[in-house]
Design a protein that fits this description.
about 90 residues; alpha+beta; 3 helices; two-stranded antiparallel sheet
């Protein structure tokens, strides 16, 4: 997620005008270790709840339902594609 003056956005890619912008853009769009840790906790917690027959899970004070799980799963997939290491995985 990237915060702009218009709010938070889940950008996956962006065009560059100058090559010098690449490092800042990569930093902004690459999930950091805390984002990956939270996403992993959400995915694991939600999937464990689903295995118990529950339709939602409480993970770190956040009520997780399918849309939140899907966003977390997407973040983990993006981190894997960018060779970002998963903590405790």
């Amino acid at each position: 997620m990237v915060q702009t003056i218009y709010g938070w956005h889940d950008y996956r890619c962006k065009s560059l005008v100058l090559p010098g912008h690449a490092a800042a853009l990569n930093e902004a769009l690459t999930p950091n270790s805390e984002e990956v840790r939270k996403a992993l906790a959400i995915v694991q917690g939600f999937e464990a709840a689903r295995a118990r027959g529950e339709d939602r899970a409480l993970v770190e004070g956040l009520l997780v339902e399918v849309p939140t799980w899907r966003n977390a799963r997407r973040l983990l997939d993006r981190a894997a594609a960018l060779n970002t290491r998963y903590p405790n995985a």
